[in-house]
Amino acid sequence: MNGLILLITVYLTLKNLLHIVGVNDPSGSSQGVVSSESEYRLLSNLSTDLFTLLLKHQPIVGNKSAGHFDLQLSGHTHNGQIFPFSLLTTLF
Fold first, then answer.
1. What is this structure's pTM?
2. In the chain, helix, strand, coil percent, each to 5?
3. d(CA 16, CA 1)
4. Residue 8 buriedness (CB in 10 A; 0-12 / 13-18 / 19+)
């Protein structure tokens, strides 16, 4: 994939400094993207000595996963975020 790594329910450890965890979006199963690995199982197997970054489409965290990562970045939005573009989302 030309140097790209898809983080689909997997984690990477970068130079023993940082864990990056990518979790599937549950709504992706309708598009054939399914994984049996749970968010909690991924996070609970990581060393707590390193900073853990959780990448998730939807900013929702299960109770079991809370406290097993340092920062979560998510990108799920509805109806646009910036005026006047939010007015355009009603057209589509």
1. 0.73
2. 20, 25, 55
3. 24
4. middle
